TrEMBL record:
This is Peptidase M23. Residues 233-284 form the SH3b domain. InterPro entries: Cell_wall_metabolism_enzyme, Dup_hybrid_motif, M23ase_b-sheet_dom, SH3-like_bac-type. It comes from the Bacteria. Pfam families: Peptidase_M23, SH3_3. One of its GO terms (molecular function) is metalloendopeptidase activity.
Amino acid sequence: MKPASHHSRVHGGLLAAALTIWTACGPQVAQEEPPRQESRAALTASDCFDWPMGGVQGSETVPGYNVRVMQNYANRGGSSWYSNRAHSGVDLALNTGSTAGAPVYAVADGVVRCVVNANYPGWVVVIEHTLGSGAKVYTQYGHMNAPSVATGATVTRGQQIATLFNQSTNSHLHFEVRDWLYWKGATSNCYGPGYAEGTYQPEQQGWMDPVDYYYQHRPAFPALAVSDISQAVRSAPNRSSTTLTTIPAGTRLTVDSVTPAQDGQDDWWYRVKYDGVNWGYMAGYWDSGWGGDLYMTEPRRSCTSSVT
């Protein structure tokens, strides 16, 4: 799982487009207006997913803070790279500090279904999550030191389950979201191949994009979010929209929704109250091709309660 060069941690621009939002609808303009209210059905604790790594901001560990994506979901690296098969998850690493030995956390409430030293390299944990709808999804955590949880254990969102295995400059967490526990039903293999087979796209074999899944499974808004870089507030959720102001790194702001970019980029954008009155957009996930950055992240909060 190939490391990528880390691009500059300041922002540039591209194209504007219409958008779809994951909370209630309404005009997406940077102006004074009240925050939108959450319109989804009531969430259960297992419906809310956090990042499995994080960093300290202020006095708490914030999921996703100081974390980057070394390799995106569905990447294909050419015939000499896993026979050009598509990556089944995301590879996560820290921006600063040692990734090797960094804590790994359960992303949601669930039950540990598999703990195995698979020479992945390192250990693998698979957690089963039962959503409010009754559907089950599974998260996999790969390249770890011996976990602190056992098969059958109940875990809660944010509980540490292990630390990361040392792979020198390639140390990372291979993280997956999928709809199966055992690869092709073989109970001897809960960890899978790490890449889809042949020309299949990962979703054709039961995987889901962990970045998209995270943003589609947020706790109730409004909430607080913090940027780990100094970044522009924009008038619309795309890279080329007007810059309204610049917010210093470490500033916590009220956010009322998160939306995917629809300008040809695989970015996600938060709608933020940037001066206590007016609204604009700041990048949550900034895609750079092979990998990307978690520029803005949310301190952990209750799944069912908003924070202002």
